[in-house]
Amino acid sequence: MAESFGGLLRSWRHAAQLTIEELSHTSGVSVRAIGDMERGTSRGPQRRTVEALAEALRLDDAQRVALSEAARAGRPRQEAPAPGACELPRGVGDFTGRTRELRALRELAARTGDEQAAVVAAVSGAAGIGKTALAVRAAGQLDDLFPDGRFYLDLRGMDPIPLDSGTALSRLLKALGVAERRIPADEEDRAGRYRALLRERRCLIILDNAAHEGQVRSLLPSAGPVMTLVTSRRPLAGLEGVHQLPLAHLAAEEAAALLRAIVGAERAAADPDGVAQVASLCGNLPLALRIAGNRLQSRPGWTAGQLAARLGDEGRRVESLSAGDLSVAAAFALSYRQLSLPARQSFRRLALAAAPEFGAPMTAVLAELGRAEAEDALEELVDLGLLQSPYVGRYRFHDLVRLFARARLSEEEPVQAQRQARRRMDDWLLEVATVAGRWFEPDYGAPPQDWSSLVELNSSQQAQEWLQTEGEAWLAALRQAFRVGEHARVVEVAEAMHWFSDLWMHWGHWPEVFDLSSRAARAMGDRAQEAAHLNYLSWAQTYCQARFDEAEATALRALELARDIGDVRQQGWSLIYATWSLWARDDHPSKESGLSYTRQAAECFQQAGDTEGYAQAMTSMGHCLRRLGRVEESVRHNLALVDRLRDPAFGGSPAIVNQAVGATLNLVGDGYFALGRWQEAADHYRQALWEMSERPISRAVAATLTSLGKALVRLEQVEQAREAFREAMELYEASGDAVRAARVLELLEQVARSAAAVTRPQNAG
């Protein structure tokens, strides 16, 4: 009787005078594996292992043959696989993209046999994203690494009754060559037999469409040179020791490439714009692209542009994406049926959200759930691929999934329930927006103690974050309130935004906000409110749109209204807003008009007893003087104004007066800079920054830092200048002002070039 593999290995190790540890070090085979072989626990190691041991033991040819034959004899006799059992499905010849994922799977496959544990990868993603296609494609590319077979089993995870683990094990055992009469009746015994078989075989097992972790866990081998690839709409995060591979939607270029591959290069080249439009309307979803391509193939007379026109109808797009038994709607419906009732209701009603992203509070309002229940529902939707979560606490639809949710809402909920949900959401958004905006109003601040909602607004920072994060949502609610004639509500919300708008100046929607509020005030017949909100609109037209002529006309219209009703204070503000609209112009007549406006405004504020408005008018007057070239006069004016504003007897809101002091000191710095008095300019810019720190407005602080940097360059304080420019650029970037950020970057680069030009001759010497 031939000697066992373990006996041969032990005798030749002793002959080589090697310990197990030394043989392990030389061969690269683990100490535990060598011990198992010599004890007979592992009787038929794989060819690579045998070769490594033979090389380390320096066996001759005859000894190598004997060791290989002993290993082959020790392996369990493999029965022939059942014909057609667990065969791979047909792959697609036009498979496109997923290069990164295929590379990752090959790298994992190459590790099989080198690790004690079997390799398992879980591919997860939304319906129609191409999980099965990727798995089958990978199996085709990995044929060389798995000579003992590649097997596929559909676990039917989206069926009402998924395939149970016991039946799955039985089918896999048959595919591996186990006769049906020899398959154990007990499921646990089946799992043990399955693991034992795979411990010695180089196989690839694809477990497609898994329902959940429990269905898969007993199908995963514990050890051996086998790789298991599991696909599921759920992430299967509960599986231990699994390499997770979540799939995202195709990039736009990949999507267009897939469509071109399906319809053919010649036809795609005839209408490249149409192909790009179809890919975009399909949301770069592989299933939708496959269906669209198949429809074009079956209709030779159609162009891609004509199909794009048909898909442009949002109400019919999802239903239009069907071809034969392929259907986007059907794929989504399988996931929808898996949801709990709260998640289904949340899914449907989230189709009402106007903004592209939303969180748990809005979901709770729409679906009439508690916040914790809403969070659970959202995570359930993410798990089944019906929502995406770009970052913690925020969620969004894929475009096609949103249309599917809208269809479910229309079919499953009466119109009245839909209207009530939308009204509940809009009311909540406008209420929170008002409370958050008032954090920045001098007469309000923190919310009333008895106010509560689904969000925390315990600080101005939280208020600002909510207003910015939900900006599109509350703006949509404001539009709806205007449409249905809730004019007082519109004015109230916009008024709450007055001071906050300075802190978020780059947001492009302020002209619309204040246009709606001024029109709402006019509809109410409230001319005082109309004048105030026309002034806010003038500010937005000046600073958000650079439409200076229109901004001046708007402010003068507000002035006319204020005069009609005898509102002297509002007249002053109209004149100030008109002045601001002139500052960006270069024509001297406009500058003279600005000085006239500020003088009239100061008189109005004095008459109205408005010290805060008066401070703003006097600051604007100093600015106008400098722009008219009367620089020394502007410096004297502004220095006197600073002293007056700092006098406790001046009165007014400390926050507003402090802001005026900062702005005036900045103007003093500008004056000294124009006079070439760089040190005095820098000193006053620094004082201005200190005053501004009480209530910093990013854009104003960035402008002052930029001016400070320029003064420091003139003073040859290069490092300090760089620091000022860097801070200014960061503030502009944070506020979304790319144009000014680019200008400051150019200043930084100029400083760097100048410094290099100065140091180069010294280094050369």
Automatic annotation (TrEMBL):
Residues 70-93 are annotated as: Disordered. Keywords: TPR repeat. Transmembrane segments: none annotated. TPR repeats lie at residues 702-735. Pfam families: HTH_31 (PF13560). Residues 9-64 form the HTH cro/C1-type domain. InterPro entries: Cro/C1-type_HTH (IPR001387), Lambda_DNA-bd_dom_sf (IPR010982), P-loop_NTPase (IPR027417), TPR-like_helical_dom_sf (IPR011990), TPR_rpt (IPR019734). This is Helix-turn-helix domain-containing protein. It comes from Nonomuraea roseola.
